[in-house]
Write a structure and sequence with these properties.
The chain is of the alpha/beta class. It folds into two domains: 2-253 and 456-479, 3-Layer(aba) Sandwich (Aldehyde Dehydrogenase, Chain A, domain 1); 258-445, 3-Layer(aba) Sandwich (Aldehyde Dehydrogenase, Chain A, domain 2), CATH 3.40.309.10. The chain has helices at residues 41-58, 63-79, 81-92, 96-116, 155-167, 180-193, 207-219, 232-243, 267-279, 299-313, 332-347, 379-382, 398-406, 421-430, 463-466, and strands spanning 9-11, 14-16, 21-25, 32-37, 124-125, 132-140, 143-147, 170-174, 200-202, 223-229, 248-252, 258-261, 291-295, 351-354, 358-359, 365-366, 369-372, 389-395, 410-411, 413-417, 435-438, 453-454, 457-458, 471-479. The strands form seven sheets. Strands 14-17-18-13-12-20-21 form a seven-stranded mixed β-sheet, sandwiched between helices. A six-stranded mixed β-sheet has the order 9-8-7-10-11-23, sandwiched between helices. It has a three-stranded antiparallel β-sheet with strand order 5-6-24, with no helix packed on it. Helix 2 runs antiparallel to helix 5 and helix 2 (63-79) packs across helix 6 (180-193). The longest helix has 21 residues, at 96-116. The protein is globular, with a radius of gyration of 23 Å.
Length: 480
């Protein structure tokens, strides 16, 4: 695992020292894990130039040839899943079982897109003119710049990069400064799999250089598409940058997912779903249940059941401790945000039933927290939490639940728990979000589209739609 810890970036098939480094920390211990190459704008431009050159030949390979290379990459990731999982736990704190799960999730994107790349079909169009024939083909858009987050430092890379790579695009990736090693480990294995120089580049940057590098990625004339996962605030800045050269932009931004439990729900299944959605990676996913709405008829029973489940199943600890299910938040700012949301909820009348405080067992640890009596005026209902707080809002009617669920500028995902099929259908149509999960807390898969309505983003990742972000449709008209 330590062999993947490197202070070099990966540009044009070479491991590059930049003469300047930044430190990477273990969020549970606060210890330095190692240092990472600090790339500035000049290195970013070098990587874009390499990707531009490599695009000329990569796009000419057949989809089958590109798929062959990607399949080798997927196999190497699977072979290394334990080492990559440990690395991931070290830099982002996720419990090891979840880290290995993420590595497999990452490998699944590589494998799935390797296959899907062979199916980028165009269409023939019935012509309205006797002397013309009409058809479309799909072509790779060019160099794709990608900026990926720390919460899924492997899977968010392959979800984006593999859709682009199989399409015939080349990639310049800037991983989060919190988690550069998982990205570099993927580059290491990409090189071993035979991905040619310049096709997949990893530019690591310190926080100081992020703004400069991000701007170059979104304004450089040779970049055709940008894909970003992160906060809505940063997404808006990148979108403005990209406007200057009219780049294709895909954005996976913040969420504020409602999880609605109706009176007819199977309570034990609803608790299982809420636990999985809320506490996966300590609540640090864009699709975590941010607001848990429970109908009055089952409110007390649900609260008692989720309290019991939290007390039994959630064990805080270092991600390498086998029993740990809740690891650290990524940094002190994240802990402060959660602490502030709890204090605000209490000030406005919420009742802390479980947890509620920082924990001293490690750095950046916050207790899994259950709050009842939550109202929509509390911060935990209108600010994305990204932490282990489960706020319970009691509601009376379906209309009220839908109104609360949609009263936000976010629209990434939502969850419905109900035993009434008509209600499930009705509510899932009315929720303004890109993803609705019915009687189920976990929904992500390479085969399915991931993306949001409203200010949660633009475009879709994963699935047959994910490749559209990296392909142009060309209409060809034949005169006969
Ligand atoms: C996230 O982007 O935070 C969630 C990733 C997933 O569940 O697919």
């Amino acid at each position: 695992m330590t062999s993947y810890i490197t202070d070099k970036a990966y540009v044009n098939g070479k491991w590059l020292s930049t003469g300047k480094t930044f430190e990477v920390y273990n969020p549970f211990t606060g210890e330095v894990i190692g240092s990472s190459a600090d790339c500035d704008g000049k290195v970013a431009v070098e990587a874009i130039q390499a990707a531009t050159e490599a695009f000329k030949t990569w796009k000419e390979l057949t989809a089958k040839d590109r798929a062959g290379i990607l399949k080798k990459w997927a196999a190497l990731i699977v072979e290394e899943k334990r080492a990559l999982g440990e690395l991931l736990t070290l830099e982002n704190g996720k419990p090891l079982a979840q880290s290995i799960g993420e590595v497999m999730f990452a490998a699944n994107f590589v494998e799935w897109y390797a296959e899907e790349g062979k199916r980028t079909y165009g269409i023939t169009i019935p012509s309205p003119h006797p002397s013309k024939r009409m058809m479309t083909i799909k072509q790779p858009i060019g160099v794709a710049a990608m900026i990926t987050p720390w919460n899924f430092p492997s899977a968010m890379i392959t979800r984006k990069a593999c859709a682009a790579l199989v399409a015939g695009c080349t990639v310049v990736l800037k991983p989060s400064e919190e988690t550069p090693y998982s990205a570099l480990a993927l580059a290491n294995l990409a090189e071993k799999a035979g991905i040619p120089p310049g096709v997949f580049n990893v530019v690591t940057t310190s926080r100081e250089n992020v703004a400069e590098v991000g701007k170059i990625m979104c304004t450089h004339p040779s970049v055709a598409a940008v894909s970003f996962t992160g906060s809505t605030a940063t997404g808006k800045i990148l979108l403005q940058h990209a406007a200057s050269t009219v780049k294709k932009m895909s954005l996976e931004l913040g969420g504020l997912a409602p999880l609605i439990v109706f009176n007819s729900a199977d309570i034990s299944n609803a608790v299982k779903g809420a636990m999985a959605s809320k506490f996966r990676y300590s609540g640090q996913t864009c699709v975590c249940a941010n607001r848990i709405l429970v109908q009055s008829g089952i409110h007390d029973e649900f609260v008692a059941a989720i309290q019991k489940a939290m007390e039994k199943e959630l064990v805080m600890g270092h991600g390498m401790q086998p029993e740990a299910t809740i690891g650290p938040l990524i940094n002190e700012a994240a802990v402060q945000k959660v602490e502030n949301q709890v204090a605000d909820a209490v000030k406005l009348g919420g009742k802390v039933v479980v947890g509620g405080s920082r924990s001293k067992i490690g750095k950046n640890m916050f207790e899994p927290t259950l709050i009842t009596g939550v109202t929509t005026s509390m911060k935990c209902c209108f600010e994305e939490t990204f932490g282990p707080i489960a706020p319970i809002i009691k509601f009376e009617t379906e209309e009220e639940a839908i109104a609360i669920a949609n009263d936000t500028t976010s629209g990434l995902s939502g969850y419905v728990f109900s035993g009434d099929v008509s209600q499930c259908w009705r509510v899932s149509e009315k929720i303004e979000a890109g993803i609705v999960s019915i009687n189920e807390g976990l929904f992500s898969a390479p085969e399915t589209p991931f993306g949001g309505y409203k200010q949660s983003g633009l475009g879709r990742e994963g699935s047959i739609y994910g490749m559209d972000e990296f392909m142009e449709v060309k209409y060809i008209c034949w005169g006969i």
